[in-house]
Write a structure and sequence with these properties.
globular; 6 helices; 5 strands
């Protein structure tokens, strides 16, 4: 399968996490704090900068981003996963979770300083995987792709 080829199983598989949202939250590996420090440093981010997160799940990356003072718009396909993320982000008024596929999401507001995808980019339609984040970024903005096992 080529770099931009689509896996026909992608649609069904990516929606499956929502059926076990509590289990996902309990068992999903958490990225080390150093990842977020490096992300902020290398992307040149500062408190208040707007970040768009692709596929936030239950907020494993969203919470550390919000804790560092970033304004986060997290896009999550699954309603149950999004509900857990919203609960976990309740103390961070500058963070919001939008329940929608990233492909269908229509952005509002200023361009982002960074678009972040932690363990999620492979679920996005290959035709939009890089093109849409590029459109969402301000000049000089960063696309950050990370994963943790």
């Amino acid at each position: 399968m080529g770099f931009m080829a689509d896996d026909p199983r992608r649609h069904g598989l990516r929606a499956g996490f929502d059926m076990a949202a509590e289990d996902y939250q309990r068992t999903r590996p958490v990225c080390p704090p150093e990842l977020f420090e490096d992300l902020i440093d290398r992307a040149g981010l500062k408190a208040g900068d707007r970040v768009i997160e692709i596929g936030c799940g239950t907020g494993q990356a969203t919470v550390p981003l919000a804790q560092r003072g970033l304004t986060v718009t997290a896009i999550e396909l699954g309603a149950e996963l999004a509900a857990i993320a919203r609960h976990r982000l309740a103390a961070f008024p500058a963070a919001e979770v939008v329940t929608c596929s990233f492909e269908d999401w229509q952005p509002q507001g200023d361009p982002a300083s960074a678009v972040v995808a932690v363990n999620s980019l492979h679920w996005i339609d290959p035709q939009l995987r890089y093109a849409k984040p590029h459109e969402l970024l301000r000049p000089g903005g960063a696309m950050v792709i990370a994963g943790c096992l």
